[in-house]
Amino acid sequence: MSTGYSKDSLLRRVRTIADFQFGAGSGEALFPDECTFQLSSTGRIRQVRLGKERLATVRAQDGRLTLGITGAARLSTRLAPPAYRVAVQEDVAPFIADGKNAMAKHVIAADAGIRAGDEVLVVTGDDLLLATGAALLSGPEMLAFNYGVAVKVRQGRGTECFQER
Q1: DSSP secondary structure string for all residues of 9-27
Q2: 71 three-class SS
Q3: The CATH number fitting domain 81-158, selected from 2.40.320.10, 2.30.130.10, 1.10.3210.10, 1.10.3720.10
Q4: What does each C-alpha distance from 146 to 131, 150, 152 come to in angstroms?
Q5: For residue 36, is pLDDT > 50?
Q6: Strands 107-110, 85-88: parallel, antiparallel or unpaired by DSSP?
Q7: Which of 15, 49, 65, 156 could cross-link to 56 by cystine, CB 3.0-4.6 Å?
Q8: Which InterPro entries does the UniProt record give (predicted)?
Q9: What is the pLDDT of residues 69-120, one digit of tens each?
Q10: Cα 97 from chain centroid?
């Protein structure tokens, strides 16, 4: 289907969204020139892929990005800790890497700038990426609360990320 938009125009659009959502320069780090786009039937960007890997999806409700695990890994190299990161205890890391939600009582550090609804990276204390998901609490609330879900995990890396150590 032809939308009338060039690949450069689509790439510029998603990079601008990423820069707005995660900070200047994030779009370049997250979306290389080789990425491809999956469009909706109305011509809107739905998914951005690099090869067969999903980097991000553009939410139809608000136009913001939800990250795939590959996109989260690319973004984590660009963002200096603690930006958009929620660090969890080592003993729950395998569960979160398998896609389980991050509970507030297991959070050991969180970016103070995180707001409920933000897309975040779930990491270990030594910044090993475990998963990506949506924050249900603000950064300070994650540290203050002893119960409840802090991050609704969308996609985990799987336990193979522990063999990389």
Answers
A1: HHHHHHHHHHHHHH-TTHH
A2: helix
A3: 2.30.130.10
A4: 21, 10, 16
A5: yes
A6: antiparallel
A7: 65
A8: PUA, PUA-like_sf, PUA_sf, TGT_C2, TGT_C2_sf, Uncharacterised_CHP00451
A9: 999 999 999 999 999 999 999 999 999 999 999 999 999 999 999 999 999 9
A10: 14
- pLDDT per residue as tens digits for the range 37-59: 999 999 999 999 999 999 999 99
Q: Measured between alpha carbons, how far is 68 from 34 in angstroms, rounded to an integer?
A: 17
Q: Which part of the chain has CATH 2.30.130.10?
A: 81-158
CB atoms within 10 A of CB 50: 18
Give the span between the Cα atoms of 134 and 160, in whole angstroms.
Answer: 23
Question: What is the sign of the dihedral through the CA atoms of 97, 101, 106 and 112?
Answer: positive
